Amino acid sequence: MGIKSRQDKKIFILDTNVLMHDPTSIFRFAEHDIFIPMVVLEELDRAKKGTSEVARNSRQVSRFLDELMTSASKGAIDSGLPLPCTAKHREDIVDSADCGHLFFQTQLQPKQLPQTLPGNTPDNNILGTALALAEMAPKRHVTLVSKDINLRIKAAVIGIHTEDYHNDQVLDDVNLLYSGESELPADFWESHSKDIDSWQEDGHTYYRVKGPDTAKWYVNQCLYIEGEPPFEAVVRSKDGDDAIIEIVKDFRSSKHAVWGIAARNREQNFALNLLMDPTIDFVTLLGTAGTGKTLLALAAGLAQVLDKNRFREIIMTRVTVPVGEDIGFLPGTEEEKMTPWMGALMDNLEVLTQTEGGEWGRAATDDLLRSRIRIHSLNFMRGRTFLNKYIILDEAQNLTPKQMKTLITRAGPGTKIVCLGNVAQIDTPYLTETTSGLTYVVDRFKNWPHGGHITLLRGERSRLADFASEAL
After folding, report:
1. pLDDT surpasses 60 at 93
2. How far apart are CA 432 and CA 109, in angstroms?
3. Mean pLDDT, to the nearest integer, of 224-252?
4. CATH topology classification for 11-163
5. Which of 14, 46, 214, 245 has the CB geometry, 3.0–4.6 Å to 233, for a possible disulfide?
6. Is the pLDDT of residue 100 over 80?
7. What pLDDT score was predicted for residue 88?
8. Where are the beta strands (DSSP E) in 249-359?
């Protein structure tokens, strides 16, 4: 059996950046075949040195390939190495021939490219290999898979079918992302009146609701009905079509302010309810610049660390991806190196430490807060366990799903993690709105009863910032 046979299966040529981005991509094409050009193996070899994410992924790809080739002979390599069958197809597969096979470029020589693509670059070599493969197996559907947009453009120009790597996309469109809140119809109470029970317990008002709308709800989803006064509640539990909802606390008034911070709109009120809830261990806040993500998370953290003694300290961290040119190495300890990256923390601490008592009172308050706030780098998180900590992860949209998993699995007993970010401001290469780690956790945690999410919509920074967001 060779590459010309198996005409019912598609064959995918993988570019280096696909393997570097997701080492498990060779197992993600179900029953179809994978072809790896020799230049891709050379690029993986050049990229394997170092401690970066790309280097780690390159080494992992090499390990996967080594496992597949351990018991293979030269003849077996020519006829294709069988790939493990994925779980969703296992019940349908009865023969290893129905699984995908992995082919390497053993004898195939790259075809001469048109004069419009001069030079012997790795990308052009891959294109030449794709053309030669399509000519060698004309009855097979050949597709080049790459995350390099320019390579896909060049491939389309010379007539090679090409696609982006979509397997790691959480959603087809970021607009489909769970927002964390849902508006109830104005006639909700009338249409559900027959199936509603209400009661009060420990100062909280609860409703048991049953009806057609409840099936679409998630636990800890925020619900509201516009009007005067507005109705705002959160789903506490759900069993089929039967749901229990609780009226949320109103943090808009200064009487119920959290560390001096009062909510300015409905979404901020929902956010403070999620942040202050001891039954919720994981909160994600999405929103554009100026919606109050960091201020709300920090105020809720200080209130629970210093007032309620629910946590021992606040840990603040973020990904160190610069917006412009890198400024080079920074002096000092880990905390001192992270300080320039934590401008948002310092700005919000200024708002939260506006106490009476003049300079001396502010300095004393500042020292107290700084003693309970730790700044850590994400680079040293692996292997750690945090007990009774309140962890704030800022700029979380710049993390990959794997990095996000590494951080969240650091949480020990009594720890709460708050992830903040704006998926429209991603600085990490090869990461998009639909593949960001923040999008990944929002989608995966929406069914978990101890996780909460809300998307902040209204900017509350200043009229200048609001106008700039709309007009620029």
Report:
1. no
2. 35
3. 91
4. Rossmann fold (3.40.50)
5. 245
6. yes
7. 46
8. 282-287, 313-318
**Where along the chain do the CATH 3.40.50.1010 domains lie?**
11-163
Q: What pLDDT was estimated at residue 168?
A: 77
Residue 405 phi, psi dihedral angles, 5° rounding: -60, -40
Where would I find the H helices in 70-148? 74-79, 87-90, 122-136
Per-residue pLDDT tens digits for 329-346: 666 665 666 666 556 666
Question: Exposed e or buried b for every residue in 32-55, given b needs 16+ CB within 10 A?
Answer: bbbbbbebbbebbeebbeeeeebe
User: Alpha helices of 161-311 — where are they, by DSSP H?
Assistant: 188-191, 266-276, 293-302
For residue 79, what are the contacts with CB-CB under 8 A and spacing of at least 6? 1, 2, 101
Residue span(s) of the chain under CATH 3.40.50.300 come to 261-471
The angle at the Cα of 303, spanning 301 to 305, to the nearest 5 degrees, equals 65
* Reported pTM: 0.79
User: What is the rounded average pLDDT for all residues in the chain?
Assistant: 84
Determine the topology of domain 261-471 in CATH. Rossmann fold (3.40.50)
User: In sequence order, what DSSP letters do the residues of 134-183 get, joined into one string?
Assistant: HHHSTTS-EEEE-S-HHHHHHHHHTT--EE---TT-S-S-GGGS--SEEE
Give the integer Cα–Cα distance in Å for 466 and 167.
Answer: 37
Q: Report the distance separating Cα 226 and Cα 65, nearest Å.
A: 57
Residue 363 scores a pLDDT above 90 = no
**How, if at all, do strands 162-163 and 33-36 pair?**
unpaired
CB 99 within 8 A of CB 93: yes
Tell me what pLDDT residue 427 has. 82
